[in-house]
Amino acid sequence: MGLLITGILLCATSWAVAWSGVPLYSEYTFFPLWLGYILVANGFAEWIYRDSLIRRMRLSFLLLFLVSIPFWWFFEFLNLTVQNWNYIFPHPISQTNFAIQASIDFSTVVPAVFSTSFLAFQILSARTGIRFPSFEIRRRWLSVSVLIGAVSLCLLGLFPERTFPLVWIAPILIVEPFIYSLGYPSLLAKVKKGDWTLPVAIMLATVVTGIFWEMWNFYSLPKWVYTVPYVGFWKIFEMPLLGYFGYPFFGLIVYSFTIFMFSILANSETARGLVSWNDSDQQVRASD
Questions:
Q1: Residue 189 lies in a domain
Q2: Is residue 169 one of the residues assigned to a domain?
Q3: Tens digits of per-residue pLDDT, 181-206?
Q4: Residue 58: which pLDDT band, with cuts at 50, 70 and 90?
Q5: Which residues pair with 226 in a beta bridge?
Q6: Any residues with CB less than 8 A from the CB of 127 and at least 6 apart, and which?
Q7: How far apart are alpha carbons 164 and 78 in whole angstroms?
Q8: How many domains does the chain divide into?
Q9: CA distance linking residue 157 with residue 155, whole number of Å
Q10: Angle CA(257)–CA(118)–CA(120) in degrees, nearest 5?
Q11: 77, 83 in Cβ contact below 8 A?
Q12: pTM summary value
């Protein structure tokens, strides 16, 4: 209960200060607010299942904060082309100050999604999981996926106003085939065996996380606003309704990128430890 109570108190106080508009203090509430969310997600898992991602990963849980920083900066780079969101500040801020403050805030993205996904996976697994028929994944399919992903990134640069949804699709088409081929724990390895529990858990968890992102952002400063061509209507908070359909795909990217980074920065066994809560099976390499 300690994690849960600490997380609730941190969320409540940070939320109140964030929406209060109190100069200086309200500008630095994003990190403590989302740290509180992360603790709440792990606290609920501990309370209900006597298990949590923090318990499983121990000190390596901190690596999630580390890999989260370059992960979201990648999407900031893509946004330079599509210009789908921008930030509003209560006063002018230097580029250096923005880079430091933003990096600290961006560090919470991956641990928030993974912590919520852990809880969602436990809930779905308790209900026998989600199963479909297994199928074979051939290497040529992986090559085609990477090619489509690469072409999609090129189209983003050429026709950003028409292809902007590819921001949330192209990366998974490239990264997931790579980690599958390299023998790292991948989503493709799951669905190949007909086990869709993990992908569905991640997608649902990221929608939940996204709702909190948008809700807490609404009355906060700094904040982000969206400029989305064609579908920028029917907003829920600042996000257009159709924009929420991007969150499930974003969650899949979070998973695949993090597994890839863990495997590079540490080793494949560390990456397997990250996802030991969903399967102990060993990944099989792609078929020809």
A1: no
A2: no
A3: 988 889 999 999 999 999 999 999 99
A4: confident
A5: 85
A6: none
A7: 9
A8: 1
A9: 5
A10: 115
A11: no
A12: 0.92
Instruction: Write the DSSP symbol of residue 27.
Output: G
Give the up-direction half-sphere exposure of residue 172: CA atoms within 13 A in the CB hemisphere: 20
Residue 268 lies inside a defined structural domain of this protein = yes
Write the pLDDT tens digit of every residue in 97-147: 999 999 999 999 999 999 999 999 999 988 777 888 888 888 899 999 999
Structure tokens at 175: 């990264």
Residue 248 forms part of a structural domain: yes
Hey, what are 233's tokens?
């209507």
Residue 253's domain comprises: 2-138+195-274
Phi, psi of 221 (to 5 degrees): -140, 125
Centroid of chain to Cα 92: 29
Three-state secondary structure string covering the chain: CHHHHHHHHHHHHHHHHHHHCCCCHHHHCHHHHHHHHHHHHHHHHHHHHCCCHHHHHHHHHHHHHHHHHHHHHHHHHHHHHHCCEEEECCCCCCHHHHHHHHHHHHCCHHHHHHHHHHHHHHHHHHCCCCECCCCCCEHHHHHHHHHHHHHHHHHHHHCHHHHHHHHHCHHHHHHHHHHHHCCCCCHHHHHHCCECHHHHHHHHHHHHHHHHHHHHHHCCCCEEEECCCCCCCCEECCEEHHHHHHHHHHHHHHHHHHHHHHHHHCCHHHHHHHCCCCCCCCCCCCEC
